[in-house]
Design brief:
heterodimer, A: 5-stranded antiparallel beta sheet, 0% helix, B: 7-stranded mixed beta sheet, 48% strand
Chain lengths: 111, 115
């Protein structure tokens, strides 16, 4: 069963605008959430994370929001740049080592 | 700091053949993971090592897949015999610890095509 879901397979946004990527999860035991970014022919690269004790974490142009009651998190990229074009994976873990990944959202930033 | 190294980058085999993948984790990382990523899906954990011991292999199809991590550093993942549905990217990752919130660092992966 898929415990982490990214329901939007793709997102197209104009350069300079905001990109919003969404992620839903079903396992209430998840206590840590991560976003990874993946370019073609490369492995996923860690982008940003958030603990379940927080509802927001910001790092430069990237902000992750967590809504535990809705079991939902989102990644905001502001402003979007051409180099942000990639596949973004949402991942979550419980009180163990395992990462459960979503299927990914392909972001295309248009010039 | 060197990242996670994997080889080969690409492999094409026929079904029922065997294949092996190699991974060298980041120096000092005690934990090593093998993931399978099928096209259009997220990575799925196959096996996790802590030093040279297996922590979790519950998702590893043990009738055909095997993995080892000799001396707690490099690791190999083997498939024998391969099936068509094994076509995927095999990712190796490493991390410094196993607690929740630990960041895993990924290699570029090996893309396997089974014909």
């Amino acid at each position: 069963d898929q415990q982490v879901k990214q329901n939007s397979p793709s997102l197209s946004v104009q350069e300079g605008r905001i990109s919003i990527l969404n992620c839903d999860y079903t396992n209430s035991m998840f206590d840590y959430f991560l976003w990874y970014k993946k370019y073609p022919a490369e492995g996923p690269t860690f982008l940003i994370s958030i603990s379940s004790i927080k509802d927001k974490n910001e790092d430069g142009r990237f902000t992750v929001f967590l809504n535990k009651s809705a079991k939902h998190l989102s990644l905001h990229i502001v402003p979007s740049q051409p180099g942000d074009s990639a596949v973004y994976f949402c991942a979550a873990s419980a009180n163990d080592y395992k990462l459960s990944f979503g299927a990914g959202t392909t972001v295309t930033v248009r010039a | 700091e060197a990242g996670v190294a994997q080889s080969p980058r690409y492999k094409i085999i026929e079904k029922r053949q065997s294949v092996a993948f190699w991974c060298n984790p980041i120096s000092g990382h005690a934990t090593l993971y093998w993931y399978q990523q099928i096209l259009g899906q997220g990575p799925k954990l196959l096996i996790q090592f802590q030093n040279n011991g297996v922590v979790d292999d519950s998702q590893l199809p043990k009738d055909r897949f095997s993995a080892e991590r000799l001396k707690g550093v490099d690791s190999t993942l083997k498939i024998q015999p391969a099936k068509l549905e094994d076509s995927a990217v095999y990712l190796c990752a490493s991390s410094t610890a196993t607690h929740s919130g630990n960041i895993q660092y990924f290699g570029a992966g090996t893309r396997l095509s089974v014909l």
